[in-house]
Amino acid sequence: MRAFVKPAPLPPSAPASLAGTSPRQGNDVSPSGPAPRSRRIIAVGGGKGGIGKSMVSANLGVALAQAGHKVLLVDADLGGANLHTCLGVGPPESTLSDFLRRGKASLEEVMVSTGVPGLSLIAGAQDSLDAANLKYAQKQKLLRTLLSQTTADYLILDLGAGTSFNTLDFFLIADHGLLVVLPEPTSVENAYRFVKAAFFRMLQQTEARYGIQDLVEGALSTREGGLRTLHDVVAQVRRKAPSDAERLERELAAFRVRLVVNQARTDADEKVGAAMVSAWKKFFGIDMDDLGALRYDDEAWRAVRKRKPVLLERPDSLVSQGLQRIAARLVSLDGPSPESAIP
Amino acid sequence: MKPFAQQTYYELLEVPPTASDAEILAAHQRLMELYSPDSIAVYALGDPDQVDALRERMNEAMEMLTDADLRVEYDRSIGLSTERLAKAAVTAEAADKVESAARVAEALATAAAALAKAAGAVDAERLEAESRLKAAASVNDSEGEAPRESGTPGKSEERMRGEESKRQESSGMDAPSVPPEPVRVGGVAVVEAFRASFTRSLSFVYVPTSPLRGQGRGVVEAPAPAVESEASGTSAPEQAIASPAEAAPATVNAAAATVPEPVSAGDSTPAQDVAAQAPAPSNPEPTEATPSPQASVEAAEASESAEAAPAPAVEAVTETPAPQPVSEASAVTAPAESGAVATSPEPTPEASATAAVTTTQGESDPNLAPVAPALDASTTALARTPATGASRAAVRPLTSRPIDSRPAANSPTGPRAVKGPTVRKLGDAQVLAQDSAIATAESALAQVAAKVREARPRGVDIPSDAEFNGELLRRVREARGMSIQQLADRTRISVRHLENVEADRYTALPTTVYLRGILMNLARELGLDPLRVSKSYLALFSEKPAKSGR
């Protein structure tokens, strides 16, 4: 399990302090919090670049908005923001970096409208070329703000490529971690790496609470005989404190990665998602969900060329149908629809 | 959720413990595809070695679980057996307890009546047999008959299971289906034979309730698959396969056969096809009514041994392939044979039917050849005619053996491959020439016996509180007939380590972490509970003298 060996050194302060804003804590609060409706965060990641994360984010946003939800798209691809392009929004007046660096107090101030009713956008940083290197405090601010924002029913985070902590941390605050994957070895490889990295990042965040710091460090630095899976980690914790282990297990199980296979060209490609779910479960004992596949469709490509969401441009195309299906599944996963929750 | 190294075979194949063979095979195939080396979905998932290991283990799981015999043992080893057995026992017992006594009595009565009717019945049976033969002949072309009727290999398992289930569900009823075996031997010792076989069948009746090893094993486990196989719903073929064995006696020696036939063979349509084949040997029979004494003696022996060794039968795996070549060789010997017997392979349905019979009979020669080279085709051809009477007897052990050995018919190596032939042979068996059949039966039985001798220790008695030290592991390994080298090859644990483990050379062993892996692997390969073995051994290991240092 070499892939688990994440040599990247962790800022010593990160795990402990991050634990404060850890996803589950934040989300556990939200339903009973001030939000009048159930607010959901969807993060769209995938590890590899160019696999359609932004396309999926933008179109999911459109689909959900069309379904009557209030949706806020956040371009969290800090170093390579182009979600606004996917939506056909010109260079935005205000961006995330305004929020992060210019002291804008709230996200509302940097939101731009997209022309789609119910769908607004927080564009990624355009100006500063070092936007990708988000400072820790800035990230904390952003994470906290995202978690506490109440204006939208759905918050969609479009993540960048790679498995940097910045990316992973955004992925982990989400209720639905969407993993976009192409039926190609390169993409699959990166997807697995991404999920592994995400789960161990999560462990790092929780470890302080469970006193398993050593364990996680061990898992990250041992090649053989170490903790290969989350199951091992839980087993270790159980040996120390059974009650903690249960809680930890619940928390780990609560975070579910949901696969979206993009650019499926054959029927076999469409099954890759299910196969990955099955294999992942077999190897690591963790459930993923297969949300479905998007067929490879030139319409998607044409739409990007036109800088329009394919869902608006070609609502009848194969890929649009697939996107609608995925959006519907996401909504159904959240149980009772937000509308019904409206007082 | 456990990492796959610790998953049970059922978890590994993602099937419920009650899964049928078909489900297991389907799951296995699906997973093999999923984890195939060129599968995108597992690319970079783990180390390639891990995927290989997983595949290997899945193969192992499939082999283990589709072998009824091994499955029982495995279930027991993972503590599942009790449930399954309990479940099986509940069904079997319920049926048995209530009905077995009544059924046995009934069957005895029927048998008695049948005996009384025997003389007349023979003729009737023969007529019927002939008419059926015609029917079959018109349907089947002469050469393909045997294989065809025995059905496609794919269905075979269900049939086998069907048989098992038959035996289980109506063991009291089925009891008489076993007896024909002794009965036919002389047609004289019928009553004794019946009695003997009844005691035997009674033992079958009770076996399901008690988790015996040895002979019980095959039977004990049967109920579970039987229950499952109901779902697959191919009851007709199931019965079809059960019938040839029972129908054969029916035509050959009506006395014995009348009992089983109405009971189990009668109802299914395919059964008649197969039954048509069964009568085949009886065709020549009328001409030579007297069994050759020698043959009958041998047959008696054979059947005796068959009787005496239900457990051997369980291990009958190896002998099943032997008869298999029979059908393949048929084309070669057929012409010569049919000429010799003077049954002209004319296109008339009847003639072709007989031709089929003779060819199939001839087939047994090549089959026999490796076993008893003394007999060449011509001698057999000649011998066959005079000794037809014996052939019934000879054939019987053959047919009956598969029945007994049904649970074991799935060889651990290639369950599917072996199963097909086994069933086919079941059909062929009726038509085997007497001499060759005897020889085949004998050699097969010998093989069975040999196999049993070496396989017996398979269930090395391991008390539940046993300490798994090196000595015990060595004994288990030897009981499985594996050399250290073989074990090393299969587990990829070095010979040195294995030797050290078996010799309890704690100081020479690697540290706990590695040792645990070794032990788990080793235990798995030996069919033991990996966790239990590693725990037990590591406990001993940790008590090692301090100087050993780790």
From TrEMBL, chain B:
Domain HTH cro/C1-type: 473-506
Domain called J: residue spans: 8-78
Biased composition (Low complexity): 270-280, 291-321, 342-360
InterPro entries: Bact_Cytoskel_RodZ (IPR050400), Cro/C1-type_HTH (IPR001387), DnaJ_domain (IPR001623), J_dom_sf (IPR036869), Lambda_DNA-bd_dom_sf (IPR010982)
Single GO molecular function: DNA binding
Compositional bias segments (type: Basic and acidic residues): 155-169
Region feature (Disordered): 133-183, 223-247, 261-421
Pfam families: DnaJ, HTH_25
PANTHER family: CYTOSKELETON PROTEIN RODZ, PTHR34475
The name this protein goes by in its record: Molecular chaperone DnaJ
